[in-house]
Write a structure and sequence with these properties.
Chain A: This is SCO-like protein. Chain A: Belongs to the SCO1/2 family. Chain A: Residues 40-205 form the Thioredoxin domain. Chain A: It holds the Pfam family SCO1-SenC. The complex is a heterodimer of chains A (208) and B (155). Chain A is α+β, with helices and mostly antiparallel strands and 208 residues long. In chain A, 39% of the residues lie in helices and 20% in strands. Chain A has helices at 2-12, 16-28, 61-64, 81-96, 117-124, 138-148, 189-207, and strands at 51-53, 58-59, 69-74, 104-109, 131-135, 152-156, 162-167, 170-173, 179-183. Chain A has a 7-stranded mixed β-sheet with strand order 2-1-5-4-3-8-9, sandwiched between helices. In chain A, a hairpin with a 4-residue loop joins β1 and β2. Chain A is globular. Chain A starts with a helix and ends with a helix. In chain B, β4 and β5 (86-91) form a beta hairpin. Chain B has one helix spanning 2-16, and strands spanning 30-38, 47-55, 61-67, 71-81, 86-91, 95-97, 102-105, 110-117, 126-133, 138-146. Chain B has a single domain (8-146), classed as PCu(A)C copper chaperone (Immunoglobulin-like, Sandwich). The longest helix of chain B is centred in the first third of the chain and has 15 residues, at 2-16. Chain B has 1 helix and 10 strands. Chain B is mainly β and 155 residues long. In chain B, strands 1, 2, 3, 4, 5, 6, 7, 8, 9 and 10 form a 10-stranded mixed β-sheet that branches. Chain B starts with a helix and ends in a 9-residue tail after the last strand. In chain B, 35% of the residues are buried. The chains are: A alpha+beta (208), B mainly beta (155). Chain A binds chain B through residues 27-29, 32-35, 39, 76-77, 79-81, 83-84, 86-88, 90-91, 122-123, 126-127, 151, 155, 157-159, 161, 163, 165-169, 182, 184-186, and chain B through 38, 41, 44-48, 73, 75, 77, 79, 81-89, 91, 107-108, 111, 113-116, 147-151. The complex binds copper (II) ion (CU). Residues 77, 89, 111, 113 of chain B line the site of copper (II) ion.
Chain lengths: 208, 155
């Protein structure tokens, strides 16, 4: 399938159009398959962005250093994926109990136009109290996403509104800021919770 | 609705008489289980509802649409997550359910997308959702509205 697509584009071959199609295909369905090494988020200490949390505090990558971090992207107008992920995360945190107390949990919007600080505050209030909501100017959101190697895209909806396609994986970082692993969208608890423990344990090893 | 029942009866009679007739799935053949939805914040955001739709009949049924007084544009949507972990959502089109089979509308897959809400979805309330089938049959279910953070029908 992938080979055929490559040959197809090769034949159509010449110009920029083919190249653009190829790049589009590469990014959407391409060999990218299970996140290649180049697609791993950079270390938090290498990221540079300025956002505001749902209580109005200025935050950035340095806010996350020193404690393990669980972060994901979404938007509050999202009917299916985002409430599901937030509920999943709330469930994992409940499972971990005290273990997760010293963890940063951050929901970063990819829709800052609609997700103001107040909107984020109301929304995260419905989920686990550890979850922080971060928003900010579009160009800063773009920088976070770039650091995480996450993508998002505004898509018109039939209702006349728009929706957002976005990376739905949950990212885990150690207290040092090092990327540990990802939890796929809606991954069962039996897999997700041990992954979180890995991020937590790495922190303890680093501390000793 | 009345016409529908009459044709259904006619079909049953013809079948009994040994004649082959086109598929006519009655609403009595469609069982909807575990319907639930999440409360909304206000009316600007779309809602989503989930359920299992079971075809207990002997003929295929095809779900072609939805109606509800709660939303101007209810539609079956499908969330897909690609190999890079990017999720997107699009109309699922018509959905055939083979005899004896069921389809699950559940988080991360198919969902009843409730666009242009006419009123907020309040936890503890219910709303009627009507499933429309290609042969003219319809099934209406009363969908409970659970909390925003609900994960499934039991929450
Ligand atoms: Cu949808």
């Amino acid at each position: 399938m992938q080979r055929r697509a490559i040959l197809g584009y090769g034949a159509a071959g010449v110009g920029a159009v083919a190249l653009m199609l190829f790049v589009g295909w590469w990014r959407v369905d391409g060999p990218g398959a299970p996140a290649p090494v180049g697609q791993r988020p950079v270390t938090l200490t290498e990221m540079d962005f300025r956002l505001t949390d749902h209580e109005g505090n200025a935050v950035g990558p340095e806010t996350l250093i020193g404690r393990p971090t669980m972060a994901f992207f979404g938007f509050t107008y999202c009917p299916d994926v985002c409430p599901t992920t937030l509920s999943d995360i709330s469930g994992w945190l409940d499972d971990l109990g005290d273990e997760a107390d010293e963890m940063n949990v951050v929901f970063i919007t990819v829709d800052p136009e609609r997700d103001t600080v107040e909107t984020m505050a109301e929304y995260v209030g419905y989920f686990h109290p550890a979850i922080r909501g971060w928003t900010g100017p579009e160009e800063q959101i773009a920088r976070v996403a770039d650091g995480f190697r996450a993508t998002y895209e505004r898509v018109p909806a039939e209702s006349g509104d728009y929706t957002m396609n976005h990376t739905a994986s949950v990212f885990l970082f150690a207290a040092s800021g090092r990327f540990v692993t990802m939890i796929d969208y809606h991954e069962p608890k039996e897999f997700a919770v041990p992954k979180i423990r890995r991020a937590l344990e790495e922190e303890m090893e680093g501390a000793t | 609705m009345k016409k529908y029942i009459l044709t259904g009866t006619l079909a049953a009679l013809l079948t009994l008489g040994g004649l082959s007739v086109p598929a006519l799935a009655g609403p009595e053949d469609v069982v909807v289980e575990n319907a639930w939805s999440r409360a909304s914040i206000g009316m600007n955001r779309p809602g989503a509802a989930y359920m299992t739709i079971r075809n207990t009949g002997d003929e295929p049924v095809t779900l072609i649409g939805l109606t509800t007084p709660l939303a101007m544009m209810p539609e079956i949507h499908e969330t897909k997550t690609n190999a890079e972990g990017v999720s997107s959502m699009s109309p699922a089109g018509e959905i055939a359910i083979a005899p004896g089979e069921s389809i699950a509308l559940e988080p991360g897959g198919l969902h009843a997308m409730l666009m242009r809400l006419q009123e907020p979805m309040t936890e503890g309330d219910t709303f009627p959702l009507t499933l429309l089938f290609d042969d003219g049959g319809e099934v209406t279910v009363e969908v409970p509205i659970l909390g925003i953070a609900a994960r499934g029908p039991e929450d």
